[in-house]
Write a structure and sequence with these properties.
Layout lengths: L3 E11 L5 E12 L4 E5 L6 H8 L7 E6 L2 E2 L5 H11 E4 L11 H11 L5 H10 L15 H13 L5 E5 L7 H17 L3 E6 L2 H4 L4 E4 H4 L7 E3 L7
Parallel strand pairs: 3-8, 3-9, 6-7, 7-8
Antiparallel strand pairs: 1-2, 1-4, 2-10, 4-5
Helix pairs in contact: 3-4, 3-5, 4-5, 5-6
């Protein structure tokens, strides 16, 4: 059973002229448990849209996304929220830490959303990222690099099958970017979580044994594709 399985995944948006613009068209993509993949692509190429489809934040026009054999797409929003909380850890470029919560409370948040509590594991993760002495600090009291470390710990707190990372080093300098990428990879390996990291940073891509460009998996990214109302390409 795959950690992630994508089949004939399509996402169309309404273009300014009222037609349909195909942004995502992925015939097939699978990831094994514990596998780590870097997906490279230019800004605006559809990387974030693909991650949002995988996470069930938005729904595809057609096709399917499955996590550990559980179909994410085509389910009610409440079901997608539950599956996301159970199976996915998400690392955002802008971190998205809640300003009113401490570092520890931010790390615990995915557990609470999944209806679980495991403060000991949250404390362990903060220690693992070198933030045990900052557990009671709020985001505004932390540096950018420290906020990133808290975000990495949070992504692993629900013991996800899949971690998806959207330009997770984009706000960091070269040294901190390398450190954050290495730490994320190590933590995913320790927890047997698959990792899909999207980036336009070729230096980060080179750290991965398996990498691919969005063009290799997403037919729609090779050119702007307008489609008819029946779904056919023009």
């Amino acid at each position: 059973m795959f950690a992630l399985e994508i089949t004939n995944l399509v996402k169309d948006f309404v273009s300014p002229d009222g037609g349909a613009l195909r942004v995502i068209d992925v015939p097939r993509l699978v990831m094994q448990h514990g596998e780590q993949v870097a997906l490279r692509g230019a800004s605006g190429s559809g990387k974030t849209t693909l991650l949002q489809l995988i996470a069930g934040i938005i729904e595809p026009s057609s096709g399917s996304v499955s996590l550990v054999g559980q179909r994410m797409s085509g389910r009610p929003e409440s079901t997608r929220d539950r599956l996301r909380a159970e199976f996915i850890g998400y690392v955002f470029q802008s971190f998205h830490l809640l300003p009113g919560l401490t570092a520890l409370e931010n790390v615990e948040l995915p557990l609470r959303l999944a209806g679980r509590r495991d403060r000991a594991f949250a404390v362990h993760l903060l220690d693992r990222v070198g933030m045990s002495d900052r557990r009671d600090f709020r985001p505004r009291q932390l540096s950018v690099g420290q906020q990133q470390r808290v975000a990495l710990a949070r992504a692993l707190s629900n013991r996800p099958a899949l971690v998806i990372a959207d330009e997770p080093t984009g706000n960091l300098d070269r040294r901190r970017a390398d450190e954050a990428a290495a730490l994320l990879r190590e933590m995913c390996q320790e927890n047997n979580a698959a990792l899909l990291l999207v980036t336009h940073d070729t230096h980060i891509v080179d750290l991965f044994e398996r990498s691919m460009s969005l063009d290799e998996v997403n037919i729609a990214s090779t050119s702007e594709q307008r489609v008819t109302t029946s779904g056919e390409r023009l």
